[in-house]
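Thread amino acids onto this structure.
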């Protein structure tokens, strides 16, 4: 029996086996960014009213309704954007805030046809802000294309008008938005996008078309806009280790105080007397804006993500803003007074930082105490004093902060506060004992200086 000679196999004679797997998508999208965008919107606005019911004592009876109107709105908008993305494989998650100056408006000359009372009416959106989440998927060999869906909160300044009496009103109104878009990287830190948003700012009463007849105005729009974004350099967040000159860290809890000035205005619409309205106009009394000093405290929490800083803040401001004017209709006998005090806010903040410097925008809920009163010497002294009401509304603003030390932060901030519309009703005292009802709209603009103390994070405290 013979055995074939054994021939060892030399490893070099074998072709090497190479195992490969598809590389993950490049991490192109993670980080903070700022940008500009502009576009066009088209949608619909509708004005409705409940018709003229019985008036309060001192007025006449009911009558035919003023009628409704529905019409298209369209126009352009342009503004700025700030946001932050996280990328996991090819999925991209993030949040984005933006603010735009807008001129999306429309009108109809056939409002009131349902009451055989044709006349002109219209609506205009003059500003729009959104705070949205984004979810996207990076496509293409290099992952440089991002398909995304988005949705969240929207707030806009809506104005409605009607020539019937005439009458008009405006408010900063909250709503919602959803949409989708595509974004592409065309340079290491630059991207361009096109997106669609559906914006619905709901409906609310903006003015009284007749006494006791509020006019409700709705607004929605389909917006297409293009934009360009710049990805911010990745910032370093300190870990708490000792350094003679540590990197500035905005994360953490802070408290502080503020002082500054406010400019406020009101607009009254009387609802007492049908004859008075018809003979004298709508009864609308605009209060010239007056200034006042205010001061208060703030507390909040910031969370830093690279160059992006997001957070939430609550404030209280005390002021004694009191304005008394002579009635434009009975200037020799009547005076009206509006008083504003105790402004509260709870708002989200979103900003971008360069070491010691932080620029931010904010938006959220605002509430305040507003009191109305009036006095008359016509036919014997009388007074109308329904007291004060706590009103809810919205706040939008922006500010700048500078970190003096790791714990002391100096800043300046501007805010626009809209306390919405409220009705005040009371019996007059004195010679005139009739019932008076007034709708009031109040808005404030404030500028304050701020000083805050930021508490050390737990990591920084533990390292000492």
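Threaded sequence (464 positions):
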């Amino acid at each position: 029996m013979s055995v074939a000679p054994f021939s060892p196999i030399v490893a070099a004679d074998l072709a090497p086996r190479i195992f490969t797997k598809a590389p993950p998508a490049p991490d192109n999208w993670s980080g903070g960014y700022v940008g500009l965008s502009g576009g066009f919107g088209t949608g619909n606005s509708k004005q409705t009213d409940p018709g003229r019911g019985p008036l309060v004592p001192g007025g006449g009876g009911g009558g035919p309704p003023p009628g409704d109107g529905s019409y298209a709105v369209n126009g352009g908008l342009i503004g700025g954007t700030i946001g932050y993305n996280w990328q996991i494989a090819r999925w991209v998650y993030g949040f984005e805030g933006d603010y735009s100056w807008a001129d999306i408006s429309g009108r109809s000359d056939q409002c009131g046809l349902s009451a055989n009372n044709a006349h002109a009416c219209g609506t205009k959106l003059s500003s729009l802000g959104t705070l949205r989440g984004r979810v996207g998927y990076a496509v293409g060999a290099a992952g440089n294309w991002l398909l995304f869906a988005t949705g969240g909160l929207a707030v806009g300044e809506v104005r409605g008008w009607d020539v019937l009496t005439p009458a008009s009103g405006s408010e900063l109104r909250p709503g919602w938005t959803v949409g989708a878009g595509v974004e592409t990287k065309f340079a290491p830190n630059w991207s361009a996008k096109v997106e669609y948003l559906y914006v619905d700012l709901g409906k609310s009463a903006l003015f009284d078309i007749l006494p006791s007849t509020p006019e409700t105005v709705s607004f929605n729009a389909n917006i297409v806009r293009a934009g360009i974004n710049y990805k911010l350099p990745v910032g370093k967040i300190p870990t708490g280790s000792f350094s003679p000159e540590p990197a500035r860290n905005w994360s953490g809890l802070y408290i502080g105080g503020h002082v500054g000035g406010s400019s406020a205005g009101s607009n009254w619409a009387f609802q007492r007397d049908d004859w008075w309205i018809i003979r004298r106009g709508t009864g609308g009394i605009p209060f010239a804006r007056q200034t006042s000093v205010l001061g208060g405290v703030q507390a909040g929490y910031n969370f830093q993500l690279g160059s992006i800083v997001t957070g939430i803040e609550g404030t209280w401001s005390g002021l004694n803003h009191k304005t008394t004017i002579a009635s434009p209709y009975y200037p020799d006998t009547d005076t009206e007074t509006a008083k504003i005090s105790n402004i509260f806010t709870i708002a989200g903040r979103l900003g971008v930082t360069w070491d010691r410097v932080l620029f931010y925008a904010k938006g959220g809920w605002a509430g305040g105490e507003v009191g109305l009163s009036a006095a008359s010497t016509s036919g014997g002294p009388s007074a109308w004093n329904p007291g004060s009401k706590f009103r809810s509304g919205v706040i939008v603003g922006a500010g700048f902060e500078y970190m003096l030390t790791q714990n002391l932060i100096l800043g300046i901030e501007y805010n626009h506060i809209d306390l919405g519309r409220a009705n005040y009703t009371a019996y007059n005292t004195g010679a005139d004992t009739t019932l008076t009802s007034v709708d009031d709209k109040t808005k404030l603009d404030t500028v304050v200086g701020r000083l805050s103390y930021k508490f050390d994070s737990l990591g920084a405290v533990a390292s000492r």
